[in-house]
Write a structure and sequence with these properties.
This protein has 292 residues and is an alpha/beta fold. The protein folds into two domains: 148 residues, Luciferase-like domain (TIM Barrel, Alpha-Beta Barrel), CATH 3.20.20.30; 101 residues, no CATH class. It is built from twelve helices and ten strands. Helix 1 runs parallel beside helix 2. The longest helix is centred in the middle third of the chain and has 19 residues.
Length: 292
């Protein structure tokens, strides 16, 4: 439906758990990507984002992304980030401090690019070991790596080790750090979360019911371990709290203004995350009012 209504690209989350039980589904992303490859012809698709640190070894991510690119030549990109405890604790591994996760991501990107060269490859690093591993299914061109950045150091990594940046807020400081580190000519993708509804009251209620985690303060999004923990935090969150983070409106001008904030901050791509089950209504609205 997104392709038919004129969207040029999409991102898909890579989660083991949803943030809350109400959200319900959390399928294995690489299986869904295969289905999307079969169902679309033009739509570009990226992971938004995959964590190649703990739950999934970077060699496995390199393998999965190479196959996805072979299925979607020129249409797939790999979004990478340092992840969330919500998904990464499930095998009983410790959840490292932020600076350690950053170091792990840096090394993981090196391993992924190493395997995409082809041939047998080995790596003996600080966090990962790779011994005589070879990817036999490789696309003609490897996919771009987009790095998620919420802080300046991650923005610098996106510029130096990545092919572009993914951000979740129109933060000019992040973009400045990205450009200063060499990202001037690289793409930058911003995520805008919205809740379109037939009226504002419905949209606000839907956003609170389905996406209270949007208003979780500070580092809770990275640190909480279980959906019920997010639900406990949600008991302290109001409609106004969520509406301050999510565009809850049937008014096209409100959506355009939020998109413009990302453009003004320096983003050249924006992907829209619609909250709630009425995806078709949202797609029709954007096709008619925003993309036309």
């Amino acid at each position: 439906m997104a392709e038919e209504r004129g969207f040029a690209f999409a991102l898909i989350s890579d989660h083991f758990h949803p943030w809350t039980d109400r959200q319900g589904q959390s399928p294995f992303v690489w299986t869904v990507i295969g289905a999307i490859a079969q169902a679309t012809e033009r739509l570009r698709l990226g992971t938004g984002v995959t964590c190649p640190l703990i739950r999934t070894h970077p060699a496995v991510i390199a393998h999965a992304a190479a196959t996805a690119t072979a299925l979607m030549p020129g249409r797939f990109f790999l979004g990478l980030g340092t992840g969330e405890n919500l998904n990464e604790h499930v095998l009983g591994d410790r959840w490292p401090e932020g600076h350690v996760r950053f170091e792990m991501l840096t090394e993981a990107i090196d391993i992924i690019r190493l395997l995409w060269r082809g041939g047998y490859q080995s790596h003996h690093g600080t966090y990962y070991t790779l011994e005589q591993a070879r990817l036999y299914t490789l696309p003609e061109e490897p996919p771009p790596i987009m790095v998620a950045a919420g802080k300046p150091n991650a923005a610098k990594l996106a510029a130096t080790a990545g092919d572009g940046l993914i951000g979740t807020a129109p933060d000019a400081e992040i973009l400045s750090a990205f450009e200063a580190a060499g990202g001037t000519d690289k793409p930058r993708i911003g995520q805008l979360t919205v809740c379109w509804g037939e009226d504002e009251a419905t949209a606000r209620k839907t956003a609170l019911d389905w996406w209270p985690n949007a208003a979780a303060p500070g580092e809770l999004g990275q640190e909480l371990a279980l959906p019920r923990h997010f639900e406990q935090v949600a008991e302290l969150i109001s409609e106004d709290d969520v509406a301050a983070k999510v565009v809850c409106s049937p008014d096209a001008d409100a959506h355009r203004a939020a998109i413009q904030e990302f453009a003004d901050a320096g983003y050249d791509h924006v992907y829209i995350h619609q909250v709630g089950p009425d995806q078709e209504g949202f797609l029709d609205f954007y096709s008619r009012e925003i993309l036309a």
